[in-house]
From TrEMBL:
Homodimer. One of its GO terms (cellular component) is cytoplasm. GO terms for biological process: fructose 6-phosphate metabolic process. Keywords: Cytoplasm, Glycolysis, Kinase, Magnesium, Metal-binding, Transferase. It catalyses: beta-D-fructose 6-phosphate + diphosphate = beta-D-fructose 1,6-bisphosphate + phosphate + H(+). The lineage of its organism: Bacteria, Bacillati, Bacillota, Clostridia, Lachnospirales. This is Pyrophosphate--fructose 6-phosphate 1-phosphotransferase.
Amino acid sequence: MKGNVIVGQSGGPTAAINSSLAGVYRTAKDRGANKVYGMLFGIQGLLQERYIDLSEYITNDLDTELLKRTPAAFLGSCRYKLPEIHENKDVYEKIFSILEKLDIEAFIYIGGNDSMDTIKKLSDYAIVTGYRTRFIGCPKTIDNDLALTDHTPGYGSAAKYIGTSVKEIIRDSFCLEYGKGLVSIVEIMGRNAGWLTGAAALAKGEDCLGPDLIYLPELPFDIEAFSEKVKDLLAKKPSVVVAVSEGIRLADGRYVCELGQSVDFVDAFGHKQLSGTANYLASYIAGEFGCKTRAIELSTLQRSASHCASRVDILEAYQVGGAAVKAADEGDSGKMVVLQRLSDDPYQCGTEVKDVHKIANDEKVVPREWVTEDGSYVTDDFVSYVRPLIQGDVSPVMVDGIPRHLYRKN
């Protein structure tokens, strides 16, 4: 590489997003990049000319390893929607003037659907105006909903945490017998795609029956049918554990969480903030049957639990970061790195690049055939798909009994 590289992180963080950042940095330096800049708080921060020279923070191999084991977005993130070019050309002129000033050859953006929209718009502007900077998307999202890629870095670690946590909740729920039964409802992230919620089935094994019910947002949620299933289960066992997606909806399109409270906050991309699904259902079941209920919201722990990260996930995140730099160095632009599964046994996965226009603003959902006919569980095919992604562990670097992270002051 003859010029410099700039990299940013966008959207919700993960336990693996910084491993991709490490992959970008190391590969860019190995390929001869003079400087590797990190934009602070994504494209929004870049518009304010907020960026750092990553060589000031990653000075040796230990820093690289710490970064790979550090959760959340080291560079900071944003949820900023670039306007359409015809709506505000000034925004693009400002971005590209900054890139020219920094002599940027490759622009790498680590993120999900909305981040790929940014790559699409910037690469289109570069083509129209003749700018030489190349734009490559590096996939990241615990939601696993990016099109054209077998899976996304960040998902495997989140799935591992969910499977582990649900198993521990099940074990805990069997400690005591309550006279009228106990129903625990675990709320898991996932607006329109149930990849994360389905991972609750990983709790099932020789030593655990797994959750009793799993509900994904891909299918309409029937509260009465749900209530009947819980009633039947309570008649057979003292404890019931249910995994639900935060985004489950009724047949009329209303989110279940909206039944208990209004959802007022909407981000720049029009996404409602979803929370309260488990609380509503727990209150509903308690009112119906007079039993004890628990509402358990895993919330941000799903994406920040680096102590429970998947080794496969961390390695693949590093791999796609390096592949993004390689693609830009070899002349690609307007592309996203994708993971292609080569085999399940043994598990093997490689990288390719695909046109970001076929990825941005699309959403990959769980196939209907991977959900049981009555919509209350996932099939063995789903579990076979996700299980290879959670394999192996990444030991934190422990100091005084607590994991050490690579830290940047804001």
